[in-house]
Amino acid sequence: MKTTIQDNYLLVSQENLSFDDFVKKFTTDYDHFRANNIVLDLNLSQNLTIKDLTRFEKIATQHHKIKKSFVIVYEDLNFNDLPESLVTVPTLQEAKDLIEMEEIERDLGF
Length: 110
Description:
This protein is an alpha/beta fold. It has one domain (2-107): STAS domain (Transcription Regulator spoIIAA), CATH 3.30.750. The protein is 40% helix and 17% strand. It contains four helices and five strands, in the order ββαβααββα. It has helices at residues 19-33, 50-53, 57-65, 92-107; strands at 2-5, 10-13, 38-41, 70-73, 87-89. Strands 1-2-3-4-5 form a five-stranded mixed β-sheet. Strand 2, helix 1 and strand 3 form a beta-alpha-beta unit. The N and C termini lie far apart (33 Å). The mean pLDDT is 93.
């Protein structure tokens, strides 16, 4: 797992781990990341299902409660089939744009 600090978020990439190992490592290390907006880049993974992505649902819900963004980047799914608690976009640029919009909303008190 690789983490990279960007302007207003922490980018977390799978790198050389299997998806199961990545989920376990991310879940274990989440407390170290929780102060940041988080973008999970899963585009290196192949054939992920909605069930795979819902493994992040609990953390995503917690993260939104503390007024931080949690965005999953994965291009090979029908995003309408995902639960609302999982914000998923197909590209890193869209994730960055979404975080900027969410930060503006939070600054305005929405």
